Amino acid sequence: MKKVAIVGAGHTPFTFATEKTSVELFSEAAMDAINEANIKAKDIQALNLGNCLGDFSEGQAMLQSYVANDIGAFNVPATRFEGACASGSLAVRDAFIWIASGFYDLVLVGGVERAASIGTSLATRTFAMFTDSHYEYPAGMTFPAMFGMLTHLYSKHYNVPLEKLKEQMANISVQSHAYGIHNPNAQFKKEITVENVLKGFMVCSPLQLLDCCPFTDGAAVIVLASEEKAKELTDKPVYITGVGQSSSGRLSSQKDHLPRIKSREVSIKQAYDMAGITPNDVDVCELHDCFSIASIIAAESLGFFEFGTAGDAWAKGEAKIGGKIPINVSGGLKSKGHPIGATGPSQVAEIYHQLRGECGVRQVEGAKIGITDTLGGDGVICNLIMEKGW
Amino acid sequence: MEYKLLFKDYSKALGKGKLLGLKCSDCNNITVPPKMTCQECGGTNLEIVEVTKKGKIVTFTVVSVAPEGRENEAPYITALVELDQGPWIMGNIANVEPSETTMDIIGKEVKLSFRNFPGDRYAPGNQARPTFTLV
Q1: Does the global pTM surpass 0.90?
Q2: CATH superfamily, domain at A140-214+242-388
Q3: Domain that holds residue B73
Q4: Interchain CB contact of B55 with A (< 8 Å)
Q5: Is-catalytic flag, A359?
Q6: pLDDT score of A139
Q7: CA of A256 to nearest chain B CA: how many angstroms apart?
Q8: Residues facing A239 on adjacent strands
Q9: Which of A50, B10, B43, B109 is placed for a possible disulfide with A111 were both Cys, Cβ 3.0 to 4.6 Å?
Q10: Per-residue pLDDT tens over the stretch A285-334
């Protein structure tokens, strides 16, 4: 298997509803990634694009083909990936496999979404399509509902009183906002307090407004290259050294594992084994904090904290820069924003910049190994491990 | 290979007050709601059985922000219930006031009935949906 490097990244601002089309958003991020990689669009051999809801947000399916044409990657094979909020990460993993196999040397991969443009009501409806439409949606299942149920289950299962858990969760949102201020592409650039979180509107009990990530428009794109190609293009390649992906059945079918998500544990084991590392080797992590409780659940399954104990980590500073494992110093989905198809590539772009030492105030000094964790729906997981390549 | 129990037949039975599941003759576990293979072992030697409509609430949430088309349902309670025979299913809790619902409800015994899900422009309508009442 060949080594695969990231040689460029592009990222639009993550925003509330924009007037730019999905093709325009993706293409702007794509050209920035292409320019940073010192290549031309015509050098690209294939294009992978993560997108969920173009059909609903602007009546546009088959974005990948129009994007390829827009940026001048004429007639390349272009493929759309749909795995709910993990769509973009699935696209990255797939591009990795093609280059690792030797089939391609240069692939453009990214994601785009206009989840804010859809509006809250239809967005809530379309996001709920990432649940079982026949057996669980009729009961009113939505994404905040899923994580509301997991919060109560977590409290009960690990015997953490709800009031204490809620305060731990509030600290997670506070940290995300504190870092988001330093990310020029973040949707929110304002500090919040634990009190703000605990006074918020109740969305799905016990999740209040600031426990939830926003709906977001935006795009993020990276360029992947084979090792030989990467050496021609950059002195600072970041290698993808481990990948994992896993799927799940409807939420009720996961009864033996909840509030843990078994597919995450399957996926991250694949990635750690492939990279030959353990959680202790990881310097920086971007994980899927669609809701504050989701950070706790993810951080435990990724191996950073014992099950039932991660909640204290944020309040103790263990998830900050300088702590045990810096988590979501980009601002995460909560503060940076969550344009679902673009979220995975955005996480990868953050790790790429972290390992290259380009993150300014939010830089994790000396970071050599970083991971991403992306959750789609009620159980698609993709994990990627990246290492500094020079 | 055909499904032993299709969604339409499961839903139709629920609408008549019967909860159907699939019993696996390889591992003896029961799968509800139905699927192609046994949820426990992946086996395909399944037979349709009637499942006891009693269970306990495992977790819940009170939904205040409803999806498009269901605004008039909010606030409502969505819950996961562990049936006496093992499987979990998702449904609503009917006879509890959402605004007064706390974690004390977890572990409470419930009985399954059903309500009609009218559907919307995306999801199939006139399906029975699981609804629980505290006993």
Answers
A1: yes
A2: Thiolase/Chalcone synthase (3.40.47.10)
A3: 53-135
A4: no
A5: no
A6: 95
A7: 10
A8: A5, A387
A9: A50
A10: 999 999 999 999 999 999 999 999 999 999 999 999 999 999 999 999 99
